[in-house]
Amino acid sequence: MTQTFGQRRILLGVTGGIAAFKAAELCRLLVKAEIAVDVVMTEAATRFIGSVTMQALSGRPVHTNLWDSAVGNGMGHIDLSRSADLVVVAPASADFLAKLALGAADDLLSTLCLARDCPLMVAPAMNRQMWEHPATQRNIARLREDGAVVLGPDSGSQACGETGMGRMTEPEALCEQILGWFEPRILDGVRVVLTAGPTFERIDAVRGITNLSSGRMGHALARSLRDAGAKVTMVSGPTALTPPPGIDTIDVVSAADMLAAVEARLTECDIFIGVAAVADYTPLHPQEQKLKKDARILAIELAPTVDILANVASRANPPFCVGFAAESERLDEFAEAKRRRKNVPLLAANLAQQSMGTEDSEIVLFDDSGRQVLPRAPKSEQARRLVTHIARLYSAAR
Question: What is the pLDDT of residues 92-130, one digit of tens each?
């Protein structure tokens, strides 16, 4: 995470539950991003994690008592939230969510949530049966109607020994979404379909044709689009990456799978971005069983795959299309020729040997106004730069 958010302030609420220990790591990550964090803990939360721990991590006093005269001249239920840019409750227990939904205010944290002027985020954490209970689902629905942002929960093993929905989203993912909240909403409500990663074209039961794409650029771009307010669907080939939270991810394997998934979602798409390194060829006759090795030369017939980007761009009323090109030589010549051949308004290009599988890259953008270089940087930073460029061109095209 390279972003820093100096001058931003978050009020982090911690409620009672075994997931309270995760709040310590969340606090550490937010402070690392140079966000000022004021921690408010319920009495139940202090049974699971000490206030001294949270004070050491935040570098600020921790507040637990509504009647603490040291808080805001006796008006702590108002003062603590007045200068906050965001209130985050993590973990948010079933009991606390019920309080919020009802507008109850019987302790410092619930009172601050009711007396706030800034947005509210909650990260639920509870047993799967508590999460699935109709009362909890009604409370969650009411909170969303009231404008709260619900982060998670996730499915997984729980402290009670059961497995299911209700596990608090991990601190890294929560921090990512919280920091994303502060990004400019330059694509608010825009529907984006994006492809990512490599494809795998089967030769036989165990072998196939693929490439060195890690999927990092596609995932980074999906996160930046989400943070810019877009509604993102990511169609991803096989990668070792965890899909970004808050994004509708469709897992596919082959180029044909990816094409079908993209076409099924084009009716509700304003922008299409083809980041994936899609195989240009696929075996014509894949074998059901493993081919045995012998001394003979193996000949495999290959057929060209459908060009997904060109297919989308050639439609009668295409979405705004952005392409990617990985070249090994003559970057400018080949990239601009590809952009014109596929008739897309923007193409991002790089040298494959300098970017595939790496953590950073240099990108050259080609559009109707010419050529623009994005100097080498982490792919997360390149993604933010690219989203800004896409938003500007998309706004002009509309």
Answer: 999 999 999 999 998 999 999 998 889 999 999 999 999
Q: Which of 127, 162, 181 is the last residue of a domain?
A: 181
User: Are 319 and 271 within 8 A, CB to CB?
Assistant: yes
3-state secondary structure of 304: strand
Domain co-membership, 137 together with 267: no
Nearest C-alpha neighbor of 88 from the set 35, 201, 12: 12
Give the CA count within 13 Å in the CB-facing half-sphere of 366: 21
Q: From 133, 158, 181, give the residue that closes a domain.
A: 181
The predicted structure's pLDDT at residue 245 = 85
269 in helix, strand or coil? coil
Measured distance CA(297)–CA(309) in Å, rounded = 35
Catalytic one of 160, 175, 269, 321: 160
226-278: pLDDT as tens digits: 999 999 999 999 999 988 888 999 999 999 999 999 999 999 899 999 999 99
What is the CATH classification number for the domain harbouring 22?
Answer: 3.40.50.1950
Co-location of 37 and 125 in the same domain: yes
Name the token pair of 152. Answer: 């998670």
* Residues 196 and 174 both lie in one domain: no
169 shares a domain with 195: no
Q: Is the pTM of this model over 0.85?
A: no
Strand order in the sheet with 120-124: 62-63, 36-41, 9-14, 86-92, 120-124, 149-150
Total tally of structural domains belonging to the chain: 2
Is there a domain that residue 30 lies in?
Answer: yes
H/E segment holding residue 251: strand 248-251
Q: Is there a cis peptide before residue 61, judged by omega within 30 degrees of 0? A: no
Q: What integer best gives the mean pLDDT of the chain?
A: 90
| Main-chain dihedrals φ then ψ at residue 202, nearest 5 degrees | -70, 130
Annotation says 160 is catalytic: yes
